[in-house]
């Protein structure tokens, strides 16, 4: 066989493999963990990083989420952040289980009287959580929203990179990822 043909064949194979990997990365879909212990998951989480989203456009720092279990198998959600005017904003919502393992939730921040309206609940999927429930990666069925959460305002770089790698494997484009600062106020 001719060396040019061999080289062309090798280049073609490498190109096809690269294209296949790029296509896989573009089509990878987020996958929630099978199950979480919702009692361990409840409590306060600090946002470490997130992909930009409309509802957080005013938030500049100190973003947290607090989850409390309700008697009716729902979860109260209180999201807080410091806004551009240096004031704390807060949104109170409710999360409904969307799978038996409680790793997929539907969340609504609409007033109680309007929660029955279709399309008013957002997806909240736990994509990864460490065994001690200290760090979690949250997204949904699309690659549109992503949050990296921790029980503390900061995490070490190795853990941060590990969770970002999980996000990339699930098809997230992290080019616009925003790290969330936390002040001592």
TrEMBL record:
<dbReference type="GO" id="GO:0009279">
    <property type="term" value="C:cell outer membrane"/>
</dbReference>
<keyword id="KW-0449">Lipoprotein</keyword>
<dbReference type="GO" id="GO:0006950">
    <property type="term" value="P:response to stress"/>
</dbReference>
<keyword id="KW-0446">Lipid-binding</keyword>
<dbReference type="GO" id="GO:0008289">
    <property type="term" value="F:lipid binding"/>
</dbReference>
<dbReference type="InterPro" id="IPR022272">
    <property type="entry name" value="Lipocalin_CS"/>
</dbReference>
<comment type="subunit">
    <text>Homodimer.</text>
</comment>
<dbReference type="InterPro" id="IPR000566">
    <property type="entry name" value="Lipocln_cytosolic_FA-bd_dom"/>
</dbReference>
<keyword id="KW-0732">Signal</keyword>
<dbReference type="InterPro" id="IPR022271">
    <property type="entry name" value="Lipocalin_ApoD"/>
</dbReference>
<comment type="similarity">
    <text>Belongs to the calycin superfamily. Lipocalin family.</text>
</comment>
<dbReference type="InterPro" id="IPR047202">
    <property type="entry name" value="Lipocalin_Blc-like_dom"/>
</dbReference>
<keyword id="KW-0998">Cell outer membrane</keyword>
<keyword id="KW-0472">Membrane</keyword>
<feature type="signal peptide">
    <location>
        <begin position="1"/>
        <end position="25"/>
    </location>
</feature>
<dbReference type="Pfam" id="PF08212">
    <property type="entry name" value="Lipocalin_2"/>
</dbReference>
<dbReference type="InterPro" id="IPR002446">
    <property type="entry name" value="Lipocalin_bac"/>
</dbReference>
<dbReference type="InterPro" id="IPR012674">
    <property type="entry name" value="Calycin"/>
</dbReference>
<protein>
    <recommendedName>
        <fullName>Outer membrane lipoprotein Blc</fullName>
    </recommendedName>
</protein>
<feature type="domain" description="Lipocalin/cytosolic fatty-acid binding">
    <location>
        <begin position="36"/>
        <end position="181"/>
    </location>
</feature>
<comment type="function">
    <text>Involved in the storage or transport of lipids necessary for membrane maintenance under stressful conditions. Displays a binding preference for lysophospholipids.</text>
</comment>
